[in-house]
Design goal:
With about 200 residues, the first copy, chain A, is mainly α. The relative contact order of chain A is 0.10. The first copy, chain A, binds a DNA duplex (31 and 31 nucleotides) through helix 2 and helix 3.
Chain lengths: ~200, ~200, ~200, ~200
DNA sequence: TTCTAATCGAGACGGTACGTCCCGTCTTGCC
DNA sequence: GGCAAGACGGGACGTACCGTCTCGATTAGAA
């Protein structure tokens, strides 16, 4: 087995082990076993479990989401929600991320890294989405990007990762509309009708 | 030490251990050590780590939140947000809950229990909050309670548990307004006009 | 398995491992495996490989040879040679003893212990054998016990442990006669004449 | 470094390692390190540790002891004992030989080789010594050379290699006398008086 | 009050994993 | 082509805990 293949096998085995037992119970020995590789080969590359896991997460998070600019706030939201739904739908993600978040609550180094690669990334995406909407005149000048991101990311994360249910398309559409409205956009004219109808215009 | 004292000492030690190392790394041995009790004494009472922890969490979750009816949607939201902020601010909660959620992703029994005692509880609270608002005419008839709960709980949970920052009062106020508006409530009279311009009332 | 059985199983496994691979390559893990016992169980009893091995050897050496007094020097020698031949004939002994002797050459602690339990023991046996012969008048007063022991033990050890051949009874008989004569005993009257006939007295 | 220098450096490093840790714990890696040479360079020359070590020992043993004929049995013994004392006094010999003997107890190939180069050599030396004495009339015709060698070599080996003490000259003198007498030589007239006086002839 | 039964602590048990070390083999470029 | 450098799988190290189990000592309540 060549050098690169070994590294790849370790990374792959790590993902599976992480999903299977979580960070807390992750054992290097099990990763090595699953990868068909010696412990030495792992310790030669990473000095600790933490370093190993964080590298993986950073790599996974770093390779994401080009810009998504559909021309309208609602279009951006629809696309974003679709992407996030898909990303969190992957079983590895839905198992590993909560685990790391839990671990972050008691390990500052993990917390720090996740802040940078996960949450900051979402801030960036959400922030630029809001900024474009403001520029277009869809959202009022002075809209608090931070609060907006909470509003955009929070509900979907809650539904997907905590309540652990897959939302229907109709739910996503309604969520788009509700969030857009909540943030102050003028209502999309005929779009939604039933789920969360805005107050009827005069 | 009497029977009851031992049981109490175990429960107390358990909470501290859970907060310190999380469910994944929780060890009966450490609990026994912290409680000043033999391992035997614990295993005689609970057959597994899981049984022990779930009992505690269920007990903690069961003794909560009476009804909160302030008479207005915005009042209810403000109060709810304050309570949730306080609850999640407690270090035990902010460390134990993410951990159990992570564990739930791979243990159906935990997932099941949490569904019942945590999420269902929030559904119930959020649902009755929405129902009252609909009854009062603050929200349109047919408002999807489930989606509404996501919108109410999600952003705050995200900010508190994931982004792990303590929101200012102004942030909470703005969140109340945004969520209310998003859900379709008529705007609170003069407060802010620009951020979330309400749809014109009928 | 009870406490004592475990200890016994370890000791037995140790002997076999020592014989199989020698002290240098002896591994606690292999001993545990062979004994059907956990490593912990061994480390709980002995703190190191050395301590373990020495204890065994001391125990084995300590439980030996009551007095052997046949009434004549030649009788004592004959009996002693028979006992030693039997003891060194045991495969464990013939494999373990050279190994420990070799190890003793570079480990003072082993050397010290072997001096006490093995060589001193032989000195004692050989010494008392010589003393009795002197008392009986079979050997001259002033016979150097130390040198005598070398003469008694050396040839047989050489033949058994180094040349690794099993001596015939005739060889042992001749050796008795030769040693007795060499030490200064009057020749046994008619016994053997051919193999190593004593020098005819002047 | 040239080809030959590397080979020589390996051989030299091997001797030092053998003395330091013995055959059992000898590692090619350590030899390479001490020789300032790569492991590859060693494995290219010898296929195993055993092959490497035996080659060295055979070479060392092969270049020895011309004939020693002093004209008398006692002279030959005195000279032989002096040579052996000197040879076994060399730290390399006193450490490597017991080690190889121990290893031979469980490795037939080593045993075979040692039989040839070490013990056979001693048999040859001892045998010719006895033969000359018989020819001279100092020892009876029919003296068993094998047994005689045991008697000659055994005591000294025991004292030097096992009891690990350096014998005084007086001890060696007495040993010569005792062995000679034991083998059946007429007593040397006035020589020994105290240490192991032969029994007065009837 | 005595006996019985439950419960206690203490701690040994087989296990698993740790992270380190070093083995002998094998691969890869440099000289 | 031989060399050093060093990564490879393997395996043992001695330690730390795990959850299970057995053991007497202590304690309470029932006889």
């Amino acid at each position: 087995m060549l050098r690169g293949e070994i590294t790849r096998a370790i990374r792959s085995a790590l993902m599976q082990e992480l999903a299977a037992v979580g960070y807390g119970r992750l054992s290097i020995e099990a990763v090595a076993r699953r990868a068909g590789v010696s412990k030495t080969a792992i310790y030669r590359r990473w000095s600790s479990k933490l370093e190993l896991v964080l590298e993986i997460v950073v790599a996974a998070a770093g390779s994401k989401l080009p810009t998504l600019d559909t021309g309208t706030l609602r279009g951006d939201l629809t696309l974003l929600f679709k992407l996030v739904t898909h990303a969190l739908g992957h079983p590895l993600a839905s198992q590993i991320i909560p685990d790391l978040l839990a671990e972050a609550a008691r390990n500052p180094e993990i917390d720090e890294t996740l802040q940078v690669v996960l949450r900051a990334k979402q801030q960036e995406i959400g922030g630029s989405l809001v900024a474009r909407a403001v520029q277009r005149g869809e959202l009022p000048v002075g809209t608090d990007a931070g609060a907006a991101v909470d509003l955009i990311v929070g509900p979907l994360y809650w539904r997907l990762a905590i309540a652990r249910s897959t939302p229907a398309q109709a739910y996503l559409d309604a969520l788009v509309e509700t969030v857009a409205t909540g943030l102050g956009a003028a209502p999309a004219v005929p779009r939604q009708r039933d789920v969360t109808p805005p107050a009827a215009p005069a």
